[in-house]
Amino acid sequence: MGDPRQHRDSPSVQNHHCEEPSKPGDITPGIVVNAHYSTSTYKPLCRDQVDLDVWVNAVPTNASRYDFLMSGILALASLHIALEDPERRQPFTAYALSYHNRALKQFSDALDSINPDNCDALFAFALITALLTFAFCDSRISAVSRTPFENILFISRLLRDLSTLVDNHEKWLRDFQSGTVNSLPTK
């Protein structure tokens, strides 16, 4: 089967509108970000065929149904461009922050009503948020100058919050996967 990172037929992430600065004659940044996710951003996330299927098929399919996940994908791809291309670092970091800020509000609202339909999208977005948090600590793109210790504290807070999310819903998620879910967890 070969290396899944060599996969060339990745589906496109649906174009999503964001308040993006642009200059006359520029290609719409959303289109650039969309293309980058489907041709490049997913590759470092994939170790095997299962990962490839998740990041190339399942996550974009869920993102077409949940705006917070679509915005998360576009934030991740924007930040990937910013890290790869110093000439475009500033605008694409701004796009990443814009997409992610919008997604966080929608994600928070969706957490209040977790259900079998949205749990995969919520979990995928939580993973994307963890990836973004690590990337935002990169001094090349961070607007905030932090010491390495402050970065560790920042990341540990995020991981604690993600751990709380998983812990609160772990049994339900496990039961849902096995098809034995009876009711949703309560807060």
Description of the molecule:
- The chain is mainly alpha-helical and 187 residues long.
- It has helices spanning 29-41, 49-63, 67-84, 89-111, 119-136, 148-178.
- The chain has six helices and no strands.
- 27% of the residues are buried.
- The model is unreliable at 1-27 and 180-187 (pLDDT under 50).
Task: Lay out the secondary structure.
Layout: H1 29-41, H2 49-63, H3 67-84, H4 89-111, H5 119-136, H6 148-178
Helix pairs in contact: 1-3, 2-3, 3-4, 3-5, 5-6
Estimate what percentage of residues fall within beta strands. under 5%
Structural class computed from helices and strand pairing: mainly alpha
Question: Residue ranges: pLDDT <50 for 5 or more in a row?
Answer: 1-27, 180-187
Global morphology: globular
Record keyword descriptors for this entry:
single chain, 187 residues, mainly alpha, disordered N terminus, disordered C terminus, DNA-binding transcription activator activity, RNA polymerase II-specific, Sterol_Uptake_Regulator
State the gist of this model:
This protein has helices at residues 29-41, 49-63, 67-84, 89-111, 119-136, 148-178. The chain is built from 6 helices and no strands.
